[in-house]
Amino acid sequence: MQPHQHFGMPSPLVFAPHENSRRYGATHFGVMIPDLPAPHSFMAFASLLGMTGMKITDAANIVSMDGPRHTAVLVHGTAAAANRALTAYSMKRDMTFAPDGSLVRFGEDAELSGRYPRFRLKTSRPGFDVDLNLSATGEWTWFVHSRLYQHIALLARYEGVVSWQGNSMPVSGLASWEYYRTISPYLLRNAPLPPRFRIPLDFFTYQIINLDSDTQLLLAYVTFMGRPAARLAHLRRAGRGATQIDGKISFTVLTVQDTPAVTPDASVMFLPRTFRWTITDRNGKQLFEINATVDTEMLYGLAAGYVGGYRWEGSYNGKPESGRGYIEYIDQRG
After folding, report:
1. Which of 40, 132, 168, 285 could cysteine-pair with 160, CB 3.0–4.6 Å?
2. Is the Cβ–Cβ distance between 236 and 242 less than 8 Å?
3. Quick count: other Cβ atoms within 10 Å of Cβ 191?
4. Rounded CA gap, 146 and 118, in Å?
């Protein structure tokens, strides 16, 4: 493993929404929890402010009347609060922003507020409410750090309340607070791209596992025109730093769900039922084996794909382990 904090935190330390930027055409704010108590199992709060022009994010059915540059989408739910997890917004008409990102409000449904290292997520939907305070631990992960695209994930502790159908549950644990900003073709022309002209990033899965009360594993696999473009594994320990695992990372879907998923824009997607991650170091020593079974409903709305939860068992440094995981999954290779 190698330290992965050689890129420092953004300076100035703000996470701007760039709603009217001429440089960045899309931003992402997210809070993900992989292991809420039953019946919730996981929580997704993943937003995209502005479309990116990529196959894995763009979906024609969600573009607002103000065009893809000014369309925001939010998938928010849990295994229990799964109804109507997707909401689309006009950034011009429905949303409120602070220029420094200290407030991002999604109509009357949700708001993410605060400045590093403390944030608050407060949401309200029919029968489902969330109020969480998050505190960054000081560990961060850069998935990408370039002039065109920057994507950072902060390890954070959370504490608060999740309410569903009148039942309130106090919750606490480890979350991932995430942000990215990127260029977009819609800065040049604010009209939807036909599918054949979208940037051919066509498969994406991103997953989070809390190994214990201080340790979090991030996993990602991405393809470009059907060919592997990125395989990533990052390990973060609260108070002890973050590392990128430097070795061989393998992701394999073992079985798919019985019925293919059909998205609102008529994409057919074979969602996983069981899958496996194996991670070895440079010397061939196995660090992780993760055998997973998706055991929640997969919620549509992560741009052109789905989010959900799974149970897993396997090993970490040769010792048996098991737990829960959070999965984002988009397959546009067909």
Report:
1. 132
2. yes
3. 12
4. 26
Q: From the CB of residue 197, how many other CB atoms can be counted at a distance below 10 Å?
A: 10
Q: Rounded to 5 degrees, what are φ and ψ at 292?
A: -120, 150
Please state the three-class secondary structure of 99-166 as a single string: CCCCEEEECCCEEEEEECCEEEEEEEECCEEEEEEEEEEEEEEEEEECCCEEEEEEEEEEEEEEEECC
Cα distance between the two ends of the chain = 35
One pLDDT digit (tens) per residue for the chain, 334 residues = 444 456 788 877 899 999 999 999 999 999 999 999 999 999 999 999 999 999 999 988 889 999 999 999 999 999 999 999 999 999 999 999 999 999 999 999 999 999 999 999 999 999 999 999 999 999 999 999 999 999 999 999 999 999 999 999 999 999 999 999 999 999 999 999 999 999 999 999 999 999 999 999 999 999 999 999 999 999 999 999 999 999 999 999 999 999 999 988 888 999 999 999 999 999 999 999 999 999 999 999 998 899 999 999 999 999 999 999 999 999 999 7
By C-alpha distance, which of 148, 199, 201, 190 is closest to 24?
A: 148
Which residues have a Cβ under 8 Å from the Cβ of 173 and sit 6 or more positions away?
A: 33, 35, 36, 157, 158, 210, 213
Residue appearing with tokens 């025109």: 225
Integer CA distances (angstroms), 237 to 70, 79, 83, 140, 175, in order: 37, 27, 34, 10, 12
Query: What is the residue range of 272's domain?
Result: 2-331
What are the φ and ψ backbone dihedral angles of 11, each rounded to 5 degrees? -135, 120
